[in-house]
Amino acid sequence: MLIPIFLIIHWYASLFFQSFFHHRYAAHNHFTMSKAWEKFFYICCFLTQGSSYISARAYGLMHRLHHAHTDTVNDPHSPSFFQSIPALLWKTRNSYNDIFKGYTIVEEKYSKDLPEWQSFDKFAHNWLARVLWGALYTAIYAVFVTHWWMWLFLPLTFSMGALQGIAVNWWAHRFGYRNYALGNTSRNILPLDLLFWGEAYHNNHHKNPGRANNAVKWFELDTGYAVIKLMHRLKIIKLKAMR
Asked: Is 177 strand, coil or helix?
């Protein structure tokens, strides 16, 4: 039963680096790090996201636009205008690609302090890298699958990062509870977030996007922030505010 173990490890590893590096570092600048560590985490994102690798700079721009235009027609990934997850996934894909390729003109104020490693993205963010990752994943399944139904998880492995992003962006604007009454549809998906590294507290995050810790209530647990605090104490990163 190594495939379920592989899926669990892949889920948490891929999502952690999307939360830590793409979201909290690139998009929100919750902490700083040296250029050497920045490159290290770029590589970590590539190794964990694999065939679904995305550019930290393009993601950061897209997410900043999401906060600036939440639930309006200018929001690059709001479920308010889509009736299905595939439709929102396609919209998000197109918004991201347009930003990555420079087709979308973004105001300069949104591009401040974004990480960028063009040569690495040129290597990691192309169809050949995705095909090679896909071949590797298929080989892993071929070796370790013990029941036919395990093959049904292969598409999830191919698109892990994209599906994790859409899980938060869809569910957290449609289902859950609110700690704050805001002018948008953001919600907290889970009262105890053991699945999304603290990203489930989306309503809290929209209330305080500059706060590294997404947990607010006593029962809420932001495991991603716990790792970030540890990295701060180890001097890998420097948190701008400990709270």
From this structure: strand
pLDDT one-digit tens code per residue, 163-222? 898 888 888 998 999 999 999 999 999 999 999 999 999 999 999 999 999 999 999 999
Task: Name the DSSP class of 201.
Answer: B
Confidence grade of residue 131 (pLDDT, cut at 50, 70, 90): very high
Contact (CB, 8 A) for 63 and 92 = no
Sign, CA dihedral 110-23-46-82, equals: negative
In Å, how far from its chain's centre is CA 174?
18
Question: What is the per-residue pLDDT across 132-164, written as a single tens digit (0 to 9) for each?
Answer: 999 999 999 999 999 999 999 999 999 999 889
Two structure tokens written together for 120 = 């690495």
Whole-angstrom distance, CA of residue 111 vs CA of residue 100: 12
d(CA 162, CA 28): 19
DSSP 112: T
Cα separation of 229 and 225, whole Å? 6
What pLDDT shows up at residue 157? Answer: 97
CA 146/CA 152 separation, integer angstroms: 12
Q: Is 77 helix (H, G, I), strand (E, B) or coil?
A: coil
Instruction: Give the end-to-end CA distance of the chain in Å, rounded to a whole number.
Output: 40
Q: Per-residue pLDDT tens for 43-61?
A: 999 999 999 999 999 999 9
DSSP structural state of residue 22? I
Tokens of 213: 């810790």
CA 23 to chain centre: 6
Whole-angstrom Cα distance, residue 11 to residue 140?
16
